[in-house]
Amino acid sequence: MIEVQNKKRSSRKRPQSFIRELFEWIKIILVAGIAAFLLNNFVIANSTIPTGSMENTIMAGSRVFGSRLVYRFGEVKRNDIAIFLYGYKCRNDGQTYRETDRGTCPLCGREDKRNQPIYYVKRVIGMPGDHIEIKKTGEVDASYITKLNVRSASGKIPVGTVYVNGEEIKENYLPEPMIVDGNQFPEIDVTVPDNYYFMMGDNRNNSADARFWGENQFVKREKMLAKVYICYWPLNRFGMVK
């Protein structure tokens, strides 16, 4: 008789034990989810580089971590490699468009907040108030340029230099000379407005950056999301990003 009663008590304990364990797992999953949300939205920015616009600093297909805290509590600095909000892809008509003050898709009027945000990774070249010039300064043999659709009857390609406030900047991170032909690759002469930045890719001959954004060619301070610090994938490219 006693044996039967013990069996009944044991069978009653099992469901209670299972429920407690399940509840503990739910708590762990919730805490982990909340922690991941907070990290991803307020501390760390995790971004994939889809194109070669930042080569050879960051190769196409690489994944990087950036710090949101740097720009939340600190300042953007020249030569920072930054993740920023470039624009949106409209979920209605599929158009990709530059972020503007209008807050809507220019084609159909759908609100930005209802569309897919697009983030870019570029280098900070111009700070608020800077005078930025890109000028033709010489020619190089066409063999130095890997961009396939560039042709030259003379075998020479016009290249140029970036000047900030009248001074040439040294850009040792460029993989090849920057084409400046006045047509496909324009000369630039602009002053960066207050609270804005002038952004360019390191792979200048294959980068859709501020040179080509038209009248909306600067990035607002509030759209600068994170400073990139680490490339973590692929593993053979693991390291600090400079």
TrEMBL record:
<dbReference type="Pfam" id="PF10502">
    <property type="entry name" value="Peptidase_S26"/>
</dbReference>
<keyword id="KW-0472">Membrane</keyword>
<keyword id="KW-0378">Hydrolase</keyword>
<dbReference type="InterPro" id="IPR019757">
    <property type="entry name" value="Pept_S26A_signal_pept_1_Lys-AS"/>
</dbReference>
<feature type="active site">
    <location>
        <position position="122"/>
    </location>
</feature>
<feature type="active site">
    <location>
        <position position="53"/>
    </location>
</feature>
<protein>
    <recommendedName>
        <fullName>Signal peptidase I</fullName>
        <ecNumber>3.4.21.89</ecNumber>
    </recommendedName>
</protein>
<feature type="transmembrane region" description="Helical">
    <location>
        <begin position="21"/>
        <end position="44"/>
    </location>
</feature>
<keyword id="KW-0812">Transmembrane</keyword>
<feature type="domain" description="Peptidase S26">
    <location>
        <begin position="23"/>
        <end position="233"/>
    </location>
</feature>
<dbReference type="InterPro" id="IPR000223">
    <property type="entry name" value="Pept_S26A_signal_pept_1"/>
</dbReference>
<dbReference type="InterPro" id="IPR036286">
    <property type="entry name" value="LexA/Signal_pep-like_sf"/>
</dbReference>
<dbReference type="GO" id="GO:0009003">
    <property type="term" value="F:signal peptidase activity"/>
</dbReference>
<keyword id="KW-1133">Transmembrane helix</keyword>
<dbReference type="InterPro" id="IPR019533">
    <property type="entry name" value="Peptidase_S26"/>
</dbReference>
<dbReference type="GO" id="GO:0006465">
    <property type="term" value="P:signal peptide processing"/>
</dbReference>
<comment type="similarity">
    <text>Belongs to the peptidase S26 family.</text>
</comment>
<dbReference type="GO" id="GO:0004252">
    <property type="term" value="F:serine-type endopeptidase activity"/>
</dbReference>
<dbReference type="GO" id="GO:0005886">
    <property type="term" value="C:plasma membrane"/>
</dbReference>
<keyword id="KW-0645">Protease</keyword>
